[in-house]
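User: Can you help me understand a structure? I only have the sequence.
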Amino acid sequence: MRFAGKVAAVTGAARGLGETIARRLASEGASVVVADIDGAGAAAVATSIEADRGRALAFEMDVTDAAAARDMVNAAVEAFGSLDILVNNAAVFGATSHVLEIDGDAWDRTMQVNLKGPFLCSQAAIGQMREQSSGGSIVFVSSLSGVVAHEHQADYNASKHGVIGLARCIAQDCREWGIRSNVVAPTGMVGTEMMAANDPVNVAPYAAQTAFARLATTDEVASAALFLAGEEASFITGTTLMVDGGVHAMQPSARQLSEGAERFMSRPDQS
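Assistant: Let's start by predicting it. Here is the structure, written out as tokens:
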């Protein structure tokens, strides 16, 4: 119960990684605001958390709306008395097109959700954390795409690079208030329900690039996020914790790629 007495807000928490993080926080004692543009999905997660004797509040919001970001923070304070942790998880994939084919509207949409959204939510949270005089922790979910380049992902990668820069600047600007700001950066491929819908043949080459020839689970990424959010990381700020199976640190051999793809395909659940 390392988060007993703490209040957390998680964006994009109606499914996937955000849902896992919200559930894990609640299971370890935090009161959690389950925020998502999908209000029904957020409500379902919050109801489930409460059924497991946790404390949760569903909050429907668009992270690109500054007023909604402020309302989310106010809802946390009204329901639970404070806001100690913010996890900026909500994101979109982007245009998945060649840089010459990404139009301005598609670029703007990716930046609005993936970069402006975390900025607005953080800004609102920081105001509350400063007033509390007890510090706080902000965790951003970036990606392997935030530290390397990928084909046909100029908008998505640029936004995720920006998230890392934003987190570092917040760590610097808010240090005197005891607010820490860090990043967890998983591989672009995480074993979520959305990823499970992909043909394993298309996923195998990505899994083969890791040291383990598999995808990360949402629990593995959530464990990293909770570590950064908690007191165990009390002297860590402005850092990026890679949860990518070593992809950013290694140049896989042809044998590794071939054998890794075979190992991935041989797993019954392709995880």
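Now, to help you interpret it: Strands lie at 7-11, 31-36, 55-60, 85-88, 136-141, 179-186, 240-243. The two ends are 29 Å apart (CA to CA). Let me know which part you'd like to focus on.
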